[in-house]
């Protein structure tokens, strides 16, 4: 892990899958190798397709750049994620009946 704001980066091959059909609307990026993406890290896929026609599914190979977060950026991302999650605790789920 990089320390005190120093960021490191590396390139890695990846697979991009995009589908826009009546059954599914999704886009996935799978990095080659066993690369763990941690809070605050950034992944940029180079020359990725951005749109496809309805009814299509494409799978392409591309290169991605992974930029590792520094210590402070990683801690900030974890804290922000925790605070955003706690906002969900304020929402209650009920069956709609008032007793």
Q: How would you briefly describe this protein structure?
A:
The chain is an alpha+beta fold and 99 residues long.
Number of helices: 1
Backbone structural class: alpha+beta
Q: Could you tell me the number of beta strands?
A: 4
**Which shape, going by the Cα principal axes?**
flat
Helix share bin? 10-25%
Q: CA-to-CA gap between the ends? A: 53 Å
As a percent range, the share of strand residues is: 35-45%
Mean pLDDT: 86
Instruction: Enumerate the spans where pLDDT stays under 50 for 5 or more consecutive residues.
Output: none
Q: What count of domains describes the coordinates? A: 1
The largest beta-sheet arranges its strands as: 2-1-4-3
